[in-house]
Amino acid sequence: MDLRVEFAGLVLKNPIITASGTFGFGLEFMNFGDLKRLGGIVVKGLSLKPREGNPMPRIVETPCGMLNAIGIQNPGVEAFVRDKLPLLPWRETAIIANLYACSVQEFGDLTGVLAGEEGVAALEVNVSCPNVREGGAAFGQDPTQIRKVTEEVKKRAEGKPVIVKLSPNVTDIGLCARAAQDGGADAVSLINTLLGMAVDIRTRKPRLANVVGGLSGPAIKPVALRCVHQACKAVSIPVVGIGGIGSAEDALEFILVGASAVEVGTANFLRPDQAFRIVDDLPRVMIKARCKEIAELRGTLDI
Amino acid sequence: MVRNCREVKVRELRFLGAWDEPSDFVELTLENPGWEGYRPGQFAMLRPKHWGLELSWGRPFSISRADDDSVTFFFQVVGRGTQRLARLNPGDEVIIWGPLGNGFSAPVETPTMLLAGGMGLAPFRGYIEKHPTPEFLRLVFAHRPELDCYPYAQMSDKVRAEAIREKTPDDLPLVIERIETAVAETAGGIVLACGPLPFLKTVQQAARTHKVRAELSLERSMACGVGACLGCVCKDGQDKHVQVCARGPVFKAEDVRL
């Protein structure tokens, strides 16, 4: 059975990638499985300078999901390159850097720091974080901005594959995917979290200090599948499926709809070895789906 | 010491007592998950295998005690997760990952004041059992529900212990005063505290006033327990966000802003 996938210049040993913000820098999970067995790891969102993130509380559990408003707390791109990247098994597993910035210029500068790093296999551009007032969502909701950011990152990426991570908080996800493609993106990944909210009638306060936050987990999987389906129809570049994927079955559903690979996010909180378990379970579920290789299933949804 | 993720069986679920509110105090004993050991003050994440997808996270609990055979947690039913945990049966499978976090200092032959507020009693049971010089330990336990809701008797027979109850809000000033004097009495030694936030603030303030070394164990909602989600942060002495799960849950009193 062949679990390998190839897309956007990347060759992954399987289609299971851990999603940004749910797997730290990978190192936090080394005691729970062999990182080399994963298809890829998207590290926590990186900014040019360190960020403290939003005030507490910043996570809430909701039925079949969770809200988060972390606000891209991270030690900054230089600390990542210096302290984290050398410890990761980047020769064996694709380490994908997730980029967050507040302006086109800053996205470019951030790309400049990472472009020469041998250990970084690809760049995922976060134009869709709902938890930061500046940048993030603003870029993600405007196709013109998506194209501009993509062009700038692509220009400075020195040939590294550029994956643009899209927000579902838009009217037409296809339009956004096309804007990324027009800007030169090698792939798009979607969906980021859905903007949501939770309140407490006892305290009469919002449950997140940021008031609103991003909804993730199994609750959003149908929305994610729909968005991936629409994006696959809108663009010719590869699509990476994200949103509520917690099992090998879920992963294959996204591939059936047209995704080249998938990212596992909130499921990493069900138990810390969940991503590894999904990899282990893939062959069994591929038999169920009657396919010998991933490419055989991709985009074969019978409508 | 290994951190791992195992599926183990429930050995025993014991209800210690109930308060006037619909709340239960529960002692949950699981099979030993193959730990080589643990440091009192460390915690573990628990998630019953049959939970399905409705609850997205495991639940963090301080390790109350552990031996070669089993590991025990002590909790109060407060929400959806603890309600379900309190309905487990012997033989049910629980996914457990730990031991997590750093744990309390355990200096030998040093006067050590254990200050527990309510559920904050949990880690000190194992602390007392494992300490090489227990004759240097003292326990002051502040509580609201009746004493038999807590595993206090199993601790008070091993060290010098006293319990002080806040039966009504009028008792609060007395409790605060006792906490403050307990800290002051420990000059030259170390205070270890675990309890609700106002309790920890009182200890922190008293430790500063009386210049006594103190460690505080913090409680937070957690999604991952391993330092990845950044949902459980507190502010350190430099006003920087640090993960309670990975950098704590025990902090030196001067290194944390409450």
Account of the protein in words:
The complex is a heterodimer of chains A (303) and B (258). In chain A, the strands form four sheets. An eight-stranded parallel barrel of chain A has the order 3-4-7-8-9-10-15-16, surrounded by six helices. A four-stranded antiparallel beta sheet of chain A has the order 5-6-14-11, with no helix packed on it. Chain A has a single domain (5-54, 68-197, 214-297), classed as Alpha-Beta Barrel (TIM Barrel). Chain A has helices spanning 77-84, 104-115, 136-140, 143-156, 173-182, 221-234, 248-257, 274-288, 294-297, and strands spanning 5-7, 10-12, 16-18, 40-42, 59-62, 65-68, 94-99, 122-126, 162-165, 187-190, 194-197, 199-200, 205-206, 212-216, 239-242, 261-264. Chain A is α/β, with parallel strands linked by helices. The mean pLDDT of chain A is 95. Chain B has 258 residues and is an alpha+beta fold. Chain B has three domains: 4-100, Beta Barrel (Elongation Factor Tu (Ef-tu), domain 3), CATH 2.40.30.10; 104-215, Nucleotide-binding domain of ferredoxin-NADP reductase (FNR) module (Rossmann fold, 3-Layer(aba) Sandwich), CATH 3.40.50; 218-258, Dihydroorotate dehydrogenase, electron transfer subunit (Dihydroorotate dehydrogenase B (pyrk subunit), domain 3). Chain B contains six helices and 15 strands. Chain B has a six-stranded antiparallel β-barrel with strand order 1-2-5-4-3-6. In chain B, strands 9-8-7-10-11-14 form a six-stranded mixed beta sheet, with helices on both faces. In chain B, strands 13-12-15 form a three-stranded antiparallel beta sheet. In chain B, strand 7 (112-117), helix 2 (122-130) and strand 8 (137-143) form a beta-alpha-beta unit. In chain B, helix 4 packs across helix 5 (197-210). The model of chain B has no long low-confidence stretch (mean pLDDT 94). Chains A and B meet through strand 5 and strand 6 of A and loops of B.
